[in-house]
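Field: sequence (string)
Field: structure_tokens (string)

Example rows 1 and 2, in order.
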Amino acid sequence: MLNQLERRFQRFAVPRLAAFLSVGQLLVWVLGQAQPQRLQNLSLVVDDVVDGQYWRLISFLFLPPGLGVLSLFGLYLFNLMGTALEAQWGDFRFNLFVFVAWLATLATACGWPDLPATNVFIGGSVFLAFAHLFPDFEIAIMFVLPVKVRWIAMFTWIGFAWEIAFGDWMTKFMVCSGVANYFLFFGLEILQHARHSQRRMEHAAGQLALSRQAFHTCSVCGATERDNPQLEFRFCSKCDGNHEYCDQHLRTHEHVAPATRDA
């Protein structure tokens, strides 16, 4: 389906969308340093959109994650990771990834038309997608401690789960809207991996069960080497068939004759 969509709508894709959004957020960040109150005019509030402020449908995507200095580091990471996804997928698929999260966020915002919607979870989905494709990429925490993004992604998922469990209803839906694109792109792969892991665990359990089966069993008392590792087992050459006995019954058992076997 993605291949068909890409062939049909590739010409509409915005090239270097990650850089475009990052530069836009940087400019809004600079604006916020001088006139932070004006940023309210860019947030997504459905009631204001209905009143004719249609730019809010797009402008909220350019709101930076904050106005602090560390927000600049966040913009740098967004551009880095978004550009990597564009290189991996191509412009159209990255556009589609962002578009799905944007559309789902708009749908959620309609449920709370008087409250501003956030784009934080859209940026979070870009990070999670990057961590899924490049789990061993390292980020220097505080510019000193290198940490692989897979671990940061794990704590991000924990944070999202916390918001779903204990956040208000708007936040719950915003989280789901923000990561809807992630499951659209990776859901089938995750499901296949889960099934493969289940089959691998079942195989390992079967091998473990086989390893626990006794190799030697006494035909008289049923003792095995697992019951007593010091027992010795021998086959009786006078018995018809393959009959094995422990050292306590090797010489005291009744021999199995052909007539007895047939009977």
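Row 2 begins here:
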Amino acid sequence: MGKTYPYIEYTRESFSEEEMLARSKEFYEWLDKRRTVRNFSDKPIPKEVIENILLAASTAPSGAHKQPWTFCVVTNPDTKKQIRAAAEKEEYDSYNGRMTDEWLEDLAPLGTNWEKPFLEEAPALIIVFKRAYEFVDKKKKNNYYVTESVGLATGFLLAAIHHAGLVALTHTPSPMNFLTKVLNRPENERPFLLIPVGYLAKETQVPDLKRKTLKQIDVFYE
């Protein structure tokens, strides 16, 4: 057996049922205001704000506590331009042959297409990479539940962005291998998600979407 972590005392405040109900409802209603947007102000985000957002994302649980993620933050205009050009090439091919008719039909109500100007307009792009393995003392060591762990961290990341008063878009150009090349990432990292982040542009509109009701998503076994 290898080394074990030292254990430290952990406490957590509790609440009455009434306060718990109020807090859970308040949090839901606040989080329900989060929307995906494609219109960003070019106002720069303070670097410390982004750093705090990334730290919040890194509080997510991970398989064997490996924390198999890297967050690349791009604010350089030239690099954003390169990313947009490469992403639009993949998106053009997707919209013109890769996607099935059913997929295109499902996207149609959202009004999206292969053009992605938000990749240059947003003041920051956060590119999430998942780390398949690490090199420790020149030996390859696997990470575990990598996709699940990075997915959890990304959820925390989006909540932290919303909490900071910023907006974001989860963008998934497919394939995303160009991000590895543009950002010169090591071979153990795989692009997972491209997230433009910024302040909301004036007069932004979003689709009038409805989320599933509780009855559509829950199954209680009592």
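free_text_note (row 2): The longest strand covers residues 189-198.
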